[in-house]
Amino acid sequence: MTNNWEQRKLNAWADRYDNLRVPITALDRVSGSTPYYGANGIQDYVEGYTHDGEFILVAEDGASDLKNYPVQYVNGRIWVNNHAHVLQAKKEIADNKFLKYVISQTNIEPYLVGGGRAKLNADTMMRICIIAPENLAEQKQLGLLFQRLDNLITLHQRKPQKEKSQDLFDSFSPNIHI
Prior knowledge:
The protein is an alpha+beta fold. The protein has helices at 10-13, 96-104, 122-126, 136-172; strands at 5-9, 14-16, 31-38, 41-46, 51-59, 71-80, 84-89, 129-133. The protein has a single domain (5-134), classed as DNA methylase specificity domains (Adenine-n6-DNA-methyltransferase TaqI, Chain A, domain 2). It is built from 4 helices and 8 strands; from the N terminus they run βαββββββααβα. β3 and β4 (41-46) form a beta hairpin. The termini are far apart.
């Protein structure tokens, strides 16, 4: 990985698909298998979808944690409400997995506006400077590496909890295994 890196505004690396978002009140949602995303992740599962493909979701408003700002990589059919921005890497220029990790490591707080409910305006977000390898293949390698590391960290965080659960079950019945 020795290729040059360059700094560009986010709008040079990704396109925004906020125009396809549709909020649905909890009472109006029809239960289904499609993840319904808000600012902080999956809120519900519904019928239908607003987006189909590989995307990066960035909280617009209502973020639960301003220090670890909610940024997610998603793939497949999803329904996104109006509390999350929807980005997709520009083909032949950027990789979604890599961009997700770069955005998630960016301090978003200076870009937020509003008092009690901080908001990340779309135009402001698209002007955030992102540094990435010029080479798309290198971005893809790094994106996969970051994803694997993230999965490994999650696995190790769950392991102690599983062991604790097994100990609890063992105290009631040594024949139950989870």
